[in-house]
Amino acid sequence: MRSVTPRTARSLCAAAVAAGVAITGAACGGSSSSSGAATSKNAAATGTLNVWIRGSGDSPKAYQKIFDAFTAQTGIKVTIGKATLTDFETALTAAASAHQLPDMVLDDAAQMGNFVSQGIVLPIDKSKFTGADQLTDQAWSSATDLKGKVDAVPFSAQANVLLVRKDWLDKLGLQPPKTWADLAKVAQAFTTQDPDGDGKPDTYGLAVPGSTSRGYTSWFWSTFLYSAGGDFLKPADGKFTATLNSPQAVSSAQFLEDQVCKNKDVQPSALGDDTTATNKAFQTGVAGMYLTGPYAYATMDATAVKGKYIVVAPPAGPDGTAGTLAEGTDIFTMADSKQDEVTKLEEFMVTPAAQKLGMTAVPSATVVRLPVNKTVDPAEVHGDDPRWQLAQQVYSTSGHYEYDNAPNWTQLRQKMSDDLNKLLSSCGAVQGALSSMNSDVSTLLKQQGVG
Amino acid sequence: MTTETTPTPVAADSVLSGRHRPGGPAVKPFRRRLGPWLYLAPLLLFIGVFKVWPTVWGVYLSFFHVRPYLGNEYVGTANYAKLFSDPDLRSAVVHTLFDAVFAVSGSIFVGFWLAVLLQGPARHVRILRTAVFLPTVIAMVAAAELWTTLLYPSPYGSVNSLLGKAGIGPEPFFNSPHSALASVILMQIWKNAPYDMVIFVAGLASIDREMYEACQLDGATRWQRLRFVTLPSLRPITTIVLVLGIIRGLRVFTEIWVSTNGGPAGSSESVVTFLYRQFSQNNDTGYAAAIGTALLVVTMVLTCLMLLWRRRKDI
Fold first, then answer.
1. B78 close to A (CB below 8 A)
2. Cβ A30–B237 below 8 Å, yes or no?
3. pLDDT at B25
4. What per-residue confidence (pLDDT) applies to A9?
5. Chain A within 8 Å of B176 (Cβ-Cβ)?
6. What is the interface pTM, i.e. ipTM, of the complex?
7. Domains of chain B (ranges, CATH numbers)
8. Predicted confidence band at B11 (pLDDT cuts at 50, 70, 90)?
9. Nearest CA to CA, how far is B23 from chain A (Å)?
10. Percent of chain A with pLDDT over 70
11. C or N terminus of chain A, fewer CB within 10 Å?
């Protein structure tokens, strides 16, 4: 061991303290920077549009097909500057601080409030947007804030459906679940009656992505919350009120807790599993039912579970309400972008031709899950696949979007996930847990200036 | 045209000490002092750019509400006020201390016994030592993947099926708030104990053989030799490994992030996973910077105390 002389020790510590003081002084002395509003530069009508995409694998290829068609039609070149799933928003934040934002971004609709509060996106003028009337109202409203400002162009939509192992149902002589009671019954049977016939109690009813990572716990719960007739928030007069202590919210959390704690019919690692792990649980025959988006068709069909499952609408709640989580991909016009060209590209991307390209150009990457354009029939485009027909029907009749237009929805969703995960892993009292979740969310809404 | 004088070679020790060697050539002291710094410059620049500057910038940001595009808003000590009243952070601190103390002392304990069992120059022992050392060189992410598979909470998980044969379990391991942190600690001990073993093997080899011989002459048992010779001789090295390990343990991140992600129910959240969540999921860069700064200060204070203590004890 290197010996430390008194001098070294003392001088090291002194230097550390001095550095600390100097830094603190510098920070306190630093004035707040002025807040510049987002602007656009319509200056040069030439140049290539730089687009960033949250997506990986074959998704960029599918987008490229759409961009190629756009370039062929307008002569405006488009390049994909970045396409990744990992830390996409972090990279965007870095680009924002360097004032080197791309022209356009394609990301989950859930990021909208985050982008708006960072001031990095430009609003959309719906009245001047060619083809605005061809888009569904449901899709537009998901991109509209409480004051009616439109902050993004919807590009793709989806709603959660229930995937069920048909071979397991047949073996046990069961019908696909239509209500929560059916769901609990089938889940229990899948757990206890050895549907895979290997003589071991190694199967479970529901595949649950219950990890708090990316807010999955709350994301999964939302379909139950909606089908109980409940909701996360209630918007009024430009503000939001948390409604998580409603009897509907309590009954939906109670149902989920019963499956996890009482019936124990979810996969054992549920509360730590993200969607990748949960996909695996369904694909490998650990769990027999999975509530997820229609993008899972391609994922599941690439594995051994292909052809062994059917797709049904999410089971109705206790009073017969049908409700499911709706989500989407949005197109964001970035601050400092070549706005006129970006608008042209946006208008092109929601045309029937481009939407069809997004659904079929690259079969392994359906970047348009459900079209936002009313004139496109997804089942027809997908070769009359009834699974897509169902997804479309579930989306338009019972799809509920989360509050992507809150200033920071991801923060709220994260908090709810933490609280719900805590409840499910402690198997505690639901009423009390949801009351405290409600007050946690109220506090955050106030901090975000909309409570 | 000017004539250039070739500098006379200077002895390395005189360059480093910056002192004139009596009777040495008369070169300007400044140039002589500059020499070592020039050699060090690339490294210093590297450390400056990638270590010092980000640290300084992080401390600076902790006084702001960070908005990368619109410009940062000065908020004074608001981020620090939040830090002291945040119950989630408080529980993360408790988990971190718990993890640091138990993971480090656990791996020292296991490492010590491995060293006692596997010391010596014989070839088969060397092969065994290499095998035992393997976990240390496995990437943490791969190790965590391995352990989540081994500790799968169903009765058919590898470890649970063994426990089942003994009539125990199935244990939830990573998936229960009661056992997640303990499981992470177990994984860290498995990973770090072999490293400590290597340190102890070196420590054991440096113990004077004559002491053992003297013991033997006095009729000491194996246990007495361990108790009165080995352990006292290893005390300084153990203390330093322990204290440095705990200080380093305050920054635990990868182990937790890749195995439990801080869950379930935040039961294995550490200070740094909490910090990262504030930054990456809640977009609260200023608050994350404040937590990072507080952690920096704590680490610096502990390191200073450690240095002073070593001076006192003259280790």
1. no
2. no
3. 55
4. 54
5. yes
6. 0.75
7. 78-314 (1.10.3720.10)
8. very low
9. 31
10. 90
11. N
- Which of B74, B266, B307 shows the shortest C-beta gap to A4? B307
Highest-scoring range by mean pLDDT, A314-328, B151-165, B301-315: A314-328
CA distance A395 to chain B (A): 28
Mutate to test the interface with A, among B57, B60, B70, B301 (most CBs of A within 10 A): B70
Q: Which residues 106-165 of B are in CB contact (within 8 Å) with A?
A: 148, 152-156
State residue B26's pLDDT score.
56
- Residues in A closer than 8 angstroms to B74, CB to CB, are 30-32
Q: Quick one: CA dihedral B243, B139, B291, B175, positive or negative?
A: negative
**pTM to 2 decimals?**
0.80
With an 8 Å Cβ cutoff, are A12 and B155 in contact? no
Assess if CATH 3.40.190.10 describes domain A161-326+404-447: yes
Lowest mean pLDDT across A134-138, A292-296, A382-386: A382-386
Could you tell me the CATH superfamily of domain A49-157+327-400? Answer: Periplasmic binding protein-like II (3.40.190.10)
Q: Which residues of B touch A437 (CB under 8 A)?
A: none
Report domain extents, chain A: 49-157+327-400, 161-326+404-447
For residue A11, the model assigns a pLDDT of: 57
- Give the residue, B77 or B156, on which the prediction is more confident: B77
Q: Tell me whether the CATH fold assigned to A49-157+327-400 matches the one assigned to A161-326+404-447.
A: yes
